[in-house]
Design a protein that fits this description.
It is a single chain. This protein is of the alpha+beta class. The protein has two domains: 84 residues, Winged helix-like DNA-binding domain superfamily/Winged helix DNA-binding domain (Arc Repressor Mutant, subunit A, Orthogonal Bundle); 109 residues, no CATH class. The protein is built from ten helices and seven strands. It has a four-stranded antiparallel β-sheet. Helix 2 crosses helix 4 and helix 6 runs parallel beside helix 10. The longest helix is centred in the middle third of the chain and has 15 residues. It is globular, with a radius of gyration of 20 Å. The N and C termini lie far apart (44 Å). 24% of the residues are buried.
Length: 215
């Protein structure tokens, strides 16, 4: 099966609205999600949640681990719970097939070799400032719509997902600098953004100077 076939399989699985809700819930969760919590979040039975979650695992969209949810050990402690998290990797489909990732790597390589980091950051910041959705809307929702999966960690807004992950792996300094500048441009007055990576997530963290959100 080709990578394109895998992507089509993933899209087919996500055509079910319940599975889409479950996937979005797990993807947005800071920690792994169990069947009970997933069922409650989506409003379905535990058995139905288990069925759909395992379909998402089979399609390569979720990954699984097992751990005990209580501190009890030994006989009577029960079986470890099945926990779900987003699987590594990305799924993209274009018809006919496109190779934007190849172009992105070529351009990033040229920019890095030419030492045009500052020019790229300036362009990114200008693009963020020109983003009409960011200027008119809630920054958290705008970041969510851009694929960052934001979540509050005390007074810090962290980003669970990096939309530029594939490029950042090969050109970390270049892409992280661009990403920081882009978010700085989108952030309204009263917000600060800085490089403060969270495990497995985006390199940027944000703080509001006027509107603190505490968990």
């Amino acid at each position: 099966m080709t990578a394109e076939d895998d992507a089509f399989t993933a899209l087919t699985v996500l055509s079910d609205p319940v599975r889409r809700k479950l996937y979005r819930h797990v993807a947005a969760s800071v920690e792994e999600v169990g069947r009970d919590a997933a069922a409650e979040a989506v409003g379905i039975s535990r058995s139905l949640a288990a069925f759909h979650l395992d379909k998402l695992v089979a399609a390569g969209l979720l990954a699984v681990s097992f751990r005990r949810l209580s501190e009890r050990t030994g006989p009577g402690a029960g079986r470890p719970a099945k926990m779900y998290r987003p699987a590594d990797g990305e799924h993209t489909v274009s018809l006919p097939p496109r190779s934007y990732d190849t172009v992105g790597r070529l351009l990033a390589g040229v920019v890095e070799k030419a030492g045009l980091d500052r020019e790229l950051q300036a362009a990114a910041k200008a693009a963020g400032a020109a983003d009409q959705d960011a200027a008119a809307g809630d920054l958290v929702e705008v970041l969510r719509s851009r694929g960052y999966l934001p979540y509050w960690d005390g007074g810090t807004l962290r980003l669970k997902n990096c939309p530029f992950h594939a490029l950042a792996d090969d050109f970390r300094a270049l892409i992280c600098g661009m990403n920081l500048a882009l978010i700085e441009g989108m952030a309204p007055e009263g917000w600060s953004a800085e490089v403060e990576p969270c495990p497995g997530g985006c390199c940027v963290a944000l703080r509001s100077k006027t509107n603190f959100h505490w968990l």
